[in-house]
């Protein structure tokens, strides 16, 4: 489904590994970095912007409210474990659609 991507279905949503590349010209999903979704962010890695920007972007891409997305691990690292709260099946389908352009084969 999302070959090699590190994500887990939970009872209240999904968790997902995200690799953040700050200081890009635009905010976008740009592929994979190992087992993580690679996300280019316009925000610079300063203060709260480095964490708030990917949280807001993921909320938008998954059609969630900002409060439904939180960083579980990696607040001070580029690789973060993100929890998305919502219907796990809907979130898994959305993840599949978001990563489809980067599927190999």
Brief write-up:
The chain is built from two helices and six strands, in the order ββββαββα. With 105 residues, it is α+β, with helices and mostly antiparallel strands.
Structure description:
The protein is of the alpha+beta class and 105 residues long. The chain has one domain (9-100): Conserved Hypothetical Protein Mth637, Chain: A. The protein is 25% helix and 34% strand. The chain is built from two helices and six strands, in the order E-E-E-E-H-E-E-H. Strands 1, 2, 3, 4, 5 and 6 form a six-stranded mixed sheet that branches. A hairpin with a 5-residue loop joins strand 5 and strand 6. The longest helix is centred in the middle third of the chain and has 14 residues, at 49-62. The termini are close together. The model has no long low-confidence stretch (mean pLDDT 92).
**Could you name the CATH class?**
Alpha Beta
Question: Total domains, how many?
Answer: 1
Low-confidence stretches: none
Classified in CATH, the superfamily is: YggU-like
Order of helices and strands: EEEEHEEH
Radius of gyration: 13 Å
Terminal-residue CA separation: 12 Å
Share of helix, binned: 10-25%
Largest sheet: 6 strands, mixed
Number of strands: 6
In percent terms, what proportion of residues is strand? 25-35%
CATH topology: Conserved Hypothetical Protein Mth637, Chain: A
Number of helices: 2
**Shape by Cα distribution:** globular
Coarse structural class: alpha+beta
Looking at the overall shape, the CATH architecture is 2-Layer Sandwich
Instruction: Provide mean pLDDT, rounded.
Output: 92
